[in-house]
Amino acid sequence: MLKLQPPTSGLLFFSVLYRSDLFSEELIHRKIESLYGKLITFNPEFNPLASYYSKEMGSVETLKRFFLVTTSSYPREFLLSTKLLSLDWERQWSDGNKRMVNVDLGLISAENFILATTKNYSHRIFLGQNIFADLTYQYQDTSYQTLPWTYPDFKDQAKIEFLNWCRTFLLMHSKIDSP
Average pLDDT for residues 149-154, to the nearest whole number? Predict the structure, then answer.
């Protein structure tokens, strides 16, 4: 008899790029924490896409970025619903048709790291409601490994080390076997 095994859960990941002259890290942090509980914070220094986002969001000097990761694990289905919620936040925090806060959402699992996106490409899997899953890293040989399509700002070692730490946290606080 075929017995289906449910997929492992993961930690929700939020990459927040925001206009620091209009919003505070604390305000955004509190909003996410009110829905998802205690969070781990990381402030990456490397942000090669700031000039790309400045075309929509404003001066590079005002753009700040931080990551938040849940301390509780969530079923993988939350990737879609939380991405849709993050799009609502972006609309609420926008100025006209321009985002003042950009929230990228992902899921950290023992096997991989997936970002949710509204953009379709050949390597992305459709999740529903115009959202796609982007396999950004796969876990192999004691670390997350980048892939040919991994965004440039996710290729630096500090981010990979942070996500490896998050993976270890996930494994220590749940009953997930390492692949």
Answer: 92
